[in-house]
Amino acid sequence: MDRLLGDAPDFGATLLSAEFPRVWCDVNRDWREVDPGMFDPAPPEDEVLLTAKVKAGFGVIPRYVSQGRQIYGHSLNLSEIRERIATAWLPYHEALAALLSEMGARFGYAVLLEAHSMPKLPYTRPSDIVLGDVHGKSCAPEVTERVESLLESGGYSVRRNIPYSGGYITQYYGRPDQNIHAIQMEICRSLYLNTATLQPGSDFEKTRKNMQNLLAGLAEWFRCEKRSTPVSESFHQDDVPAK
Q1: Of the chain's two ends, which shows fewer C-beta atoms within 10 Å, N or C?
Q2: pTM for this predicted structure
Q3: Number of domains into which the chain is organized
Q4: Quick check: 5 and 211 in contact, CB under 8 A?
Q5: 68-91 pLDDT, tens per residue?
């Protein structure tokens, strides 16, 4: 994914990429989404948020990988989660919060396009890309519509919010009432990846070019729209948990 979107700065965007696997530390979870049964000693109750994702084994430190395969055959020391949060989760979110705050102050708005990969969906009507805006709560509708239109003009079939409506990042940072807009974009791996070799597939360059077109189209649209309505309330880094 980082190679697919690596040209983003050429179009005026800022690219923030996690350089660690989410199976080690998932930044798309609240830092408290912890399965206490994985740790010895267990974390304090006020540091645990038992969500559906945690119960399914996919918390900030996942219990499982795909097909329900368990990752660890032993309990992890509590210091393990604190180290991963301090060295991976926290720096990522500090950087993201600072970027959105800077963009909001500079332009009056900020747009976060959060990119993920997804497997082929088992639906009758295939979908190349799923856009998640938390059912309209994380992003102004005209922004989602523009992203969808640009993707469809590239020949992609696009779904909204099914089955991915947006994870922690989209839900937490998307504040359209403050002109902070967040959209999750799930791209089918078959569009760019050889799933047998895990190397770029035959359509990688085509997909990369289409992502360039998306970024260029968004940049041009925002310039033409002069979308500079002042942010109604400033976005603070203080919203990210301290170390």
Answers
A1: C
A2: 0.88
A3: 1
A4: yes
A5: 789 999 999 999 999 999 999 999
